Amino acid sequence: MNNSLTKDFITYGVGNILYTLVNLLLVPVFLEKLDVTDYGILSISLVTENLIMILFSLSISNGILRAFNEGYTLKKEQTFFSTALIFFILIEALFILISYTLKEFLSQIIFETKNYCPFIVLIIIIGFSRILDSLNLGVLRARNKSLQYVLLNISNIILLAAINLIIIYFTQFTLISILWGYVISGLISNIIGFAFNYSDFRLEFRLESLKYFIRYGFPLGIASAISYFINYGNRYFLMNYTSKTDVALIDISQKIASLVGVLLTGAFLTVFTPYYLNLYNKVPKEEFSKRINEKIITFSVLFFFLGLNIIMFQDLGLSLLSKSQYLIAANYVPYLILSNYFFVLFMMLTLGTNINKKTKVEMYITILIFILSIIANIILIQSFGIYGAVYTQIFINLLSVLLIQIYNKKYFPLTINFNSLFKLIIIFISLSIAKTKIPILFNINNLFVTRGVLPFILIGIYIFLYQKEIFSIKSKLLLLVK
Length: 482
Description:
Layout: H1 3-33, H2 36-56, H3 60-68, H4 74-101, H5 103-111, H6 117-142, H7 146-170, H8 175-196, H9 207-232, H10 234-241, H11 244-257, H12 259-280, H13 285-318, H14 333-349, H15 351-355, H16 359-384, H17 386-411, H18 418-441, H19 447-465, H20 467-471, H21 473-477
Helix pairs in contact: 1-7, 1-12, 2-6, 2-9, 2-11, 3-4, 3-6, 3-9, 4-6, 4-9, 5-6, 6-8, 7-8, 9-16, 10-11, 10-16, 11-14, 12-13, 12-14, 13-14, 13-18, 13-19, 14-17, 16-17, 18-19
């Protein structure tokens, strides 16, 4: 057992899991308090905020980690942090001014109406607050201040939940109240994070430090923002071509599908990335490829196992909501789980471009995919509605995996065992279809059978087929090494 990796998994993974999980647990509250169309507007708002955060963050957390590990003096490391902090505060102020000046125009562009002008500035503040959080967390991780890292994550979780719940239940609640909840919790979190890193701050701004972050982070930021848009930007097309109700339904479906990511993906990638980068420099190419394949297969088995459990029991959770139209969201979840899997696999495979210092390759691939996704969304959503959106996601993310693998096969020593992955995907699809089709084929209307017995039988089949991966010690912590 590698104790360092296990510690990293617990320290840096669990906090991220809890933050995302609390965010998701607020969703049922929003669904009950808002009507379906208002929830669609909230979805568009938070997707826009995420795009801002990803696009302008310059992948700052990883950039700080990389800079602090290059053997610079303490003074230069402090200059990196100070430059980044001053830069993001100035850029945030500039964007707040621009967004306030152009609020009617931006509201029309984002929401297709001028009625949501007050939302625009709040979206900007939320996005940049998350960038500053990422910066503070990056410094704490680079300094190996694990206790403070955990404390900042926990404070983020408590603030997010407490402030939003107070606003929802103890104020005159409106849709904009939710955004104010995110603004207040984000700003307080920034203050706490800066207090932890205050000793590293110098009132100093160096252009060379900024160039370092831009050179490293700009291609990654573009690629990450486009990747995020590919998976979540369909809401803009759905609002334009169908309705805000469809935006709400796709959002709920994606939230359900993303539970796999909350429980597994975030923590896995947190420890997989340094493991991948370190392993490449320590073992022969053949051994590197073998070990990475083992980790990818183990991750994939667990990913689809969790996804299958969600598919089997999601209707029980949705039936607890007072609005019956939300039950329709369950139809799209299996497609989105598959799409999310291809997206995560793409992220893992792009680490080869990081090692080769060819992050532009990832950017070029995602730009091509971005163009194709716009075309596909426009054509398929007009023809198939929400199904067109999920079909596009699957196709685009799969294409991304194939393109990055072509690069890796030519320039990087990693050969993925696609035969094993293809078999796993077929089994997942077959069991997911069986959940819906078996009751129809055999005319089974008994809820005890369809919601109780049948799901456990199908999950049992999956466990039988992949019991080694599911129950092995390796699968429990994902990245334990001999």
